[in-house]
Amino acid sequence: MPFSDPTPLLTVPVVPVLTIERVGDAVPLARALIAGGLPVIEVTLRTAAALDAVRAIAAEVPDVIVGAGTVTKPADVTRAIEAGADFLVSPGTPAALAEALCGSGVAAIPGCATATEAMTLAAMEFPVLKFFPAEQAGGVRWLKAVAGPLPQIRFCPTGGIDGENAASYLALPNVIAVGGSWVAPPQAIAAGDFEAITARARAAAALRK
């Protein structure tokens, strides 16, 4: 079964990129983000708790669209889908991973950092790409430069984006959304300060009306 288009899922300007160390934080964190107007989230597969966090959110917070990020190998695709991920995000996309994403049956946002990578993934009919690491790889200037020759590709840039520079990315016509961890920083998650996370989410949701 081929992958599906992630465009309908990206209804918000900012996709919080979450590193969850404790499964018990997953559900209150998801609820805090949706309360702030950000119902689309990405849980990175960087911790032992990540897959269980995806599983808990999918089961207990059905109004949240939960994705799995830091997908780096085909086995991650299978495990994330089994946990209930609605979409998959990779930091980069070697050939074997691209093929696995193509056959995943869920929405996929493969990562790229160069025009060649973007063109290769576009040829595989991925309509939205993750530009990563955005700030380090050229940022807004890079996205403006590729908009001319590659007008059909839309991006979700991630990496070095925060509340200070997110609006400059969102102003670009080829940017559908941005990803970032500033909405739910690890320190706030660890402290259980979900009210502060809701406030950050509310500010991020207002970046594009």
Your description of this structure?
The structure is a single chain. The chain has 209 residues and is α/β, with parallel strands linked by helices. The protein has a single domain, classed as Alpha-Beta Barrel (TIM Barrel), CATH 3.20.20.70. Helix content is 38%, strand content 15%. It contains nine helices and nine strands. It has a six-stranded parallel beta sheet with strand order 5-4-3-2-1-9. β6 (111-112), α5 and β7 form a beta-alpha-beta unit. α1 (26-35) packs parallel to α9 (194-205) and α2 runs parallel beside α3. The longest helix is centred in the last third of the chain and has 12 residues, at 194-205. The chain is globular, with a radius of gyration of 16 Å. The termini are far apart.
Task: Summarize the helices and strands and which ones pair or pack.
Layout lengths: L13 E5 L7 H10 L4 E5 L5 H11 L4 E5 L4 H10 L3 E3 L5 H8 L4 E3 L1 E2 L2 H9 L4 E4 L7 H9 L6 E2 L10 H5 L7 E3 L5 H6 L2 H12 L4
Parallel strand pairs: 1-2, 1-9, 2-3, 3-4, 4-5, 6-7, 7-8
